Amino acid sequence: MSASRDNPDTPDTRTDGPAATRSGLRERKKLKTQQRLREEALRLFASQGFDQTTVEEISEAAEVSPSTFFRYYPTKEAVLFMDEFDPLVTAALRRQPKDKRPILAVRDAIKSGFTEMLPEDERQLLEVYRLTTSTPGMRGHLYQNILESMDYFADTIAEWRGVSRDEPAVRTFVGAVTGVILEAATEWVSEAEGRPLRVIIDEHLARLEAGLDF
After folding, report:
1. Phi, psi angle pair for 65, to nearest 5°
2. CATH number at residue 47
3. Could you give the C-alpha distances from 132 to 26, 51, 98, 210, in angstroms and in order?
4. Entry pTM
5. Distances from the Cα of 39 to the Cα of 36, 122, 139, 170, angstroms
6. Which pLDDT tens digits describe the chain residue by residue (214 residues)?
7. Structural domain count of the chain
């Protein structure tokens, strides 16, 4: 017999049955609520400006209360900096062979991360980057987010290679790749023909791999 049956105060941790089904439904409902809040927030930011949009307006558009909004996002700014892409790339990087050249491993990890993104995710990413780079009050938040992403990337690279994150080679590599990705994102936003971000990033990383010769 399971522990939950022997002791009614013990949570049911089984991976099947009614309890697991209810847990799965709750998680899907939470995810849908979070996605709806972000979609409505981005829509309002684009139409009336970030500073002019209130949490109350976002909540009303998503048909939830402001208290529900704050259960998913601690601040209005957090809507823009919820990063779904970094975890996909870092997970893919950890799967790369440890003897692969770091730049090749990163290129392949980024390609893998993009295969897990939906077209809607990439569209939202474009909207977020446009907003954060065009709103003066957001630039400080963007800079802080970049620094946090670099630390996260350095930790992942160091773990994957089995070296210290404080190795000068690791920090230099992370800085170079981050700079390349930022330039690729800037180009992506400004391009009229709208090439996919993954294509532009890979082109820029290929130039880094080649030694930046021109």
Report:
1. -85, 160
2. 1.10.10.60
3. 32, 12, 35, 31
4. 0.72
5. 5, 13, 21, 36
6. 333 333 444 444 445 555 555 556 666 777 788 888 988 998 898 888 888 999 999 999 999 999 999 999 998 888 888 767 788 888 999 999 999 999 999 999 999 988 887 777 778 788 888 888 877 778 788 888 889 889 999 999 999 999 999 999 999 999 999 999 999 988 888 875 678 888 899 999 999 998 876 6
7. 2
Dihedral angle of Cα 117, 123, 125, 129, to the nearest 10 degrees: 160
Q: Which of 14, 8, 54, 61 is nearest to 33 (CA)?
A: 61
Residues 57, 85 within the same domain: no
Which residue is it, tokens 């849908």?
32
CA 92, chain centre distance (Å): 14
Task: State which of 75, 101, 116 marks the end of a domain.
Answer: 75
Q: Are residues 26 and 120 in the same domain?
A: no
170: Cβ contacts below 8 Å, ≥ 6 apart? 154, 157, 158, 161, 163, 164
- Around Cβ 181, how many Cβ atoms within 10 Å? 21
Q: Are residues 117 and 196 in the same domain?
A: yes
Out of 52, 75, 98, a domain closes at 75
- Are 21 and 127 part of one and the same domain? no
Identify whether residues 65 and 164 lie together within a single domain. Answer: no
Could you list the residue range(s) of the whole structural domain that residue 166 is in?
80-209
